[in-house]
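It is worth pausing here to work through a concrete case rather than discussing structure prediction in the abstract. The textbook approach is simple: state the sequence, then state the predicted structure, then interpret. We follow exactly that order.
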Amino acid sequence: MARCKERITLICEDKQQSVFIREYLRCCGFDINPNKMTIDICPQGKGSGEQYVREKFVAEVRTFRQKAAHTNSVLIFAIDADTKGVQARFNELGNLLNEAHMPERGQSEKIAIFVPKRNIETWIAYAQGTKVNETDVYQKLDRERECKPAVKHLKDNICSKPLPENAPSSLFTACEELNRLL
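Step two, the predicted structure:
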């Protein structure tokens, strides 16, 4: 059943994150029709993707909060942990809100932050059956859309149950974040 009343805004580092998250949301029943979704990806060759997401964070949260009372919206950020920890990324973003004199995310706010460690390719490799760790860099796909079967497998066969112990720890955090939206 489509969750068609929700307007989704996705801010992410790159096209691979965008494709992965859109496909996962689609598998979860969200309407990812372009008329219901705004996607903001760091322009290629315009600097660091994680910096782009950080720079957008406060303004997007502010706009979301202004509209939240009037619309049924969802705000999603995707930012790689890279060599930092997942919690360090959350702390960075929380500090940005504090510096802007804005409250932290409320439990009922439909604002999710997905932080794959090291990057989204870790989650893709895991969903494809590769034994992964969160320090190695995994190969990028030739085409971003090639992640769709892995995403569907992740949703249907891995995340639909309690995650296995060998799942990347950042994926456990992502499941908690997804629950904010459901």
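Step three, interpretation. The mean pLDDT is 93. The radius of gyration is 16 Å.
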